Amino acid sequence: MSRTLTFSIFRHNPRDPASTPRVESYQLTEAAGMTLFIALNMIRENQAPDLNFDFVCRAGVCGSCAMLINGRPGLACRTLTQTLPDHITLYPLPGFALIADLSVNTGIWMREMAERLQTWVHGQDEPDVNALEARMEPELAEEIYELDRCIECGCCVAACGTAQMRPEFVAAVGLNKIARFRLDPRDLRKDADYYELIGNDQGIFGCMSLLGCEDLCPKGLPLQTQLAFMRRKMAMQGIRKWIPLVPV
């Protein structure tokens, strides 16, 4: 039997001087296989044509449709309404600049983080474009690919207590990228170089290990395993930096 779903959706357009933050309610009859993405499109088509939310791929790959779903970050396109109660609340992700309604600008945050952490392969100054690509063991390539599955949706940032208290914190998405490049043999940086980027409270030592990032990552990435590993490596690097080891 079909349910009647009630959606309480945050509405506000900061570019409109007449707009004020508010919650508006809409009702829909649930259909088999309905996702929040489908529901939002139906609401926009039939009830609220000015409703703002983001989407691109509709397949859980682009990360554009991330939002707070009943208080938990998630992807609208991968969330079935049948897994939710009759009353559904939708809010924009915290920690990012609001565009309007459920749409936030994660791009500015992600770009600043990428530039700050230099998330690109640091190889030779003048690579030989005619040379064959360097070989890599399949097992290592798989490890790198696993961390490269991050879609930069912002769910880990929204779920992170530290990120909400410290806007400069690079969060799990930034630390995961450092872990990915540390694995890459084409990147010539050493732990001392990574320490300069994340060896502080805005980086790895700011993580409170509340597990919100791993619990709510829509791609199921092993974030806490990587964060714990990076914290240990950076702590060891910090000891070497401030207390030089005496050779035996």
List keywords for this structure.
248 residues; alpha+beta; five-stranded mixed β-sheet; two-stranded antiparallel sheet; 7 strands; 36% helix
Q: Give the proportion of residues in helices.
A: 25-40%
Query: Biggest β-sheet, characterized?
Result: 5 strands, mixed
Estimate the global geometry from the Cα principal axes.
elongated
Q: How much beta, percentage-wise?
A: 5-15%
Question: Can you give a write-up of this model?
Answer:
The chain is an alpha+beta fold. 36% of the residues lie in helices and 15% in strands. It contains 9 helices and 7 strands. It has helices at residues 36-46, 106-117, 138-148, 155-158, 161-165, 171-183, 191-198, 212-216, 223-242; strands at 4-11, 22-29, 66-69, 72-75, 87-91, 97-100, 103-105. Strands 2-1-5-3-4 form a 5-stranded mixed β-sheet. A two-stranded antiparallel sheet has the order 6-7. Helix 3 (138-148) packs antiparallel against helix 6 (171-183) and helix 6 crosses helix 9. The chain is elongated.
Topology of this protein?
Layout: E1 4-11, E2 22-29, H1 36-46, E3 66-69, E4 72-75, E5 87-91, E6 97-100, E7 103-105, H2 106-117, H3 138-148, H4 155-158, H5 161-165, H6 171-183, H7 191-198, H8 212-216, H9 223-242
Parallel strand pairs: 1-5
Antiparallel strand pairs: 1-2, 3-4, 3-5, 6-7
Helix pairs in contact: 3-6, 6-9, 7-9
Short description:
With 248 residues, the chain is α+β, with helices and mostly antiparallel strands. The chain is 36% helix and 15% strand.
